[in-house]
Write a structure and sequence with these properties.
Elements: E1 9-13, H1 19-32, H2 51-60, E2 63-69, E3 72-79, E4 87-95, H3 104-118, E5 123-129, H4 133-141, E6 145-146, E7 156-162
Parallel strand pairs: 4-5
Antiparallel strand pairs: 1-2, 2-3, 3-4, 5-7, 6-7
Helix pairs in contact: 1-2
């Protein structure tokens, strides 16, 4: 596996003004890997494809990240607000095919975990569809384990990372 140079990957937070970039990355992800998401491409196209909706998505979720690999947008991830049980949820994680295996996903997950610690979260949780075993393996490598709770949809596995275990 090729190891990226440190300066090849940049992760940055984005806001509502970046809605068109988020839209482009999200639609590409839904088209390229429909098996990996609970949302469907059709849900975000046609009448659902409006600037107000994209801006709303970015304003409703406190952490929205874009990763660039060699200055090209290559991935995205988000973190939800800290909930009453002390957890943050990692959502909307995606890495473009051309950037997979280059550390982009690692950088995004690390950024969400670091932000979660800043929010004083005790855990980071996520849902991964059971048919996406590559993602399950990736998240396990980052310290996520199955949490045993059922999730919606029924074919989604919940995984959790205990932040008290230190940096991995």
């Amino acid at each position: 596996m090729m190891r990226p140079l440190q300066n090849e990957i940049e992760v940055r937070g984005i806001g509502v003004e970046d809605w068109s970039l988020w839209r482009k990355l999200r639609l590409q992800a839904l088209a390229e890997a429909p098996y990996a998401f609970g949302s469907k491409l059709a849900d975000w196209q046609g009448a659902g494809d409006t600037e107000d909706r994209w801006r709303g998505r970015l304003s409703d979720v406190p952490l929205n990240l874009v990763a660039e690999w060699r200055q090209v947008p290559a991935g995205m991830a988000s973190g939800t607000a800290l909930n009453p049980n002390g957890s943050v949820e990692l959502i909307s994680m995606s890495v473009a095919p051309f950037a997979r295996g280059r550390g982009v996903g690692d950088a995004l997950v690390t950024a969400v975990i670091d932000w979660s610690r800043e929010q004083r979260a005790s855990t980071v949780v996520l849902g991964v569809l059971e048919r996406n075993q590559r993602a399950v393996t990736f998240y396990r490598r980052h310290g996520f384990v199955p949490d045993g709770d059922s999730a919606e949809p029924a074919n989604e596995h919940r995984m959790v990372r205990d932040l008290s275990l230190g940096v991995r």
